[in-house]
Structures are given as structure tokens and as C-alpha cells.
Amino acid sequence: MIKVDNLKKQFGNEEILKGITTTFEKGKTNLIIGQSGSGKSVMLKCLIGLFKPEQGRIYYDDNAIQDMDEEQQRVLREEIGMLFQGGALFDSMTIEDNVMFPLRMFTKQKRAEMLERVNEVLNRVELDGVNKKYPAEISGGMQKRVSIARAIVNKPKYLFCDEPNSGLDPKTATVIDNLIQRITHENDITTIVVTHDMNSVMEIGERINFLKNGVLVWKGTQEDIFKTDNKDVTDFVYSSDLFKKIRDVQNKTN
Ligand SMILES: Nc1ncnc2c1ncn2[C@@H]1O[C@H](COP(=O)(O)OP(=O)(O)OP(=O)(O)O)[C@@H](O)[C@H]1O
């Protein structure tokens, strides 16, 4: 579980996060959604320690990162898996070496042991046998799955995904979403997904945090989001033409 209490972040005089309080639950896919510029990425960067907030506290399972010494912060870094926007694989490394990278960084395991774990996670994302290929030799969807394998290779307790579906077709995006959700459930991970993709909201929105101009204006589940009359949320949901058309058809037939 990750808790955030009154998180404030500003750049210069501009307040980007205006006092956010929320909880991200263990074993669930927790989404942060909202329009472009609402502060989603800044929030993610505060959570993983890339940005230092001006105010507020961030708790990882009841331990505030502000109170951790260097050793505790190092341990925490090892417990975090990151799925970056665009995948961020190293082009000059094979898939095997890409996935092995966090193990090399954080553990003292022997190569054979690391390889066993690499094969285990490649199998988990259904990519057996691609070990010796390079990122450029596999499809975008496969690259995303490699990135997931790399993010979970060190058995993280917390998984952060920044726009995991960017650049993917809707069907592949759904495969990636479902994979993230299944891995979250199987391993009881606290997963946080930043997205503005309504498909993801419908697929994996177990817990949804809606940001607007740096304020958490709504919290709920994927069932709640279609029942709420919060105008900010409905504007966002129905900003997609497709949803507007579905709603119009439903209204006609009801
Ligand atoms: N390093 C920075 N320095 C100054 N301002 C920044 C910095 N990073 C982000 N911002 C500003 O913070 C605001 C929120 O940006 P953020 O990237 O969090 O939005 P977002 O909701 O993730 O948008 P998108 O969906 O487009 O990625 C924007 O106005 C942005 O210009």
C-alpha cells in the first residue's frame, strides 16, 4: 500500500499538485487519470522520489520516505518496478540482457541464477525464446511485454506504469493492460498506472484517482465512473467521440 498525505509540488510560482491525499491499495491496479497537464506524471515522479515535493508525506506500507535514511531508500528502490512510457529498452542489448539489467544492478546473483529468473519472467509474459533478439527485431507489443518482464524481474512490491499503452493498437493495449492486472493480482503488488486511456479505465480501473489541475477531484472504481454525475469526470469520459455515440444510442433505445 502507498499513502499520500497532502502532497504539494510547485515549479517556480506555479502550483502543480495542490494538496493531494489518497491511498493506493495493495494487490490492485490503482489508476491516476486526467487530462493532459493535470499533474499525473509530476505525481508519479514525486511518488518514486524523482521530484521532491514542497509539502506532504508519502508512505510506503506505513514508512514515510521523508524519514528513511539512505540505506532504507536504497532498499525501497529495489522494491520498485518501473514500466516507462515507450518501454525504454536498451537498443544495443539483447532482450535477455535488458531483462537481466535490474538483477545485475541490485543483486549479487550468479549469471546462471539470473538467467533462470529472466527465463521465468519471459515465460510469464509469453515471450519464450526471444532471449538473443534485439529490441528492434520484435514488435512494439512484444517490446512492451519485455519491459514488463524487466519491471518485475526483481519481484517488486510496488509497480509504476507510465502510460503503458502509448503507441499500441487497441487490441495489443488490452493484452498489456490485462497482463499488468494479472501480475498485480498474482504477486499482490501495489500497482499504479498513469493513463488517459479510457480503454484502460474500463479494463483495469479497480481504483481510479481523477486529477484536474493538480487537485484530486474524484475517486472511485470502474463501475462508479459511469454512474457519477461529477461533471469533470463525465466530461473526461465522454470526451471520446465513441463513448458519446454509445451513450446517444443507449439513450435512444432506453
Ligand atoms: N520539470 C518541470 N518543470 C516545470 N514545470 C513542469 C515540469 N514537469 C512538469 N511541469 C508542468 O507541470 C504540469 C503538469 O504536467 P504533467 O506532466 O504532470 O501532466 P500530465 O497530467 O502527466 O500530462 P500528460 O498526460 O500530457 O503527460 C504542466 O503544466 C507541466 O508543464
Offer a concise description of the structure.
The protein is α/β, with parallel strands linked by helices and about 250 residues long.
Explained architecture:
This protein has 254 residues and is an alpha/beta fold. Helices cover 40% and strands 24% of the residues. It has nine helices and ten strands. It has a six-stranded mixed sheet. Strands 2-1-4-5 form a four-stranded antiparallel sheet, with helices on one face. The termini are far apart. Adenosine-5'-triphosphate binds at residues 11, 16, 34, 36-42, 196.
Which keywords apply here?
single chain, 254 residues, alpha/beta, Rossmann fold, six-stranded mixed beta sheet, 9 helices, binds adenosine-5'-triphosphate
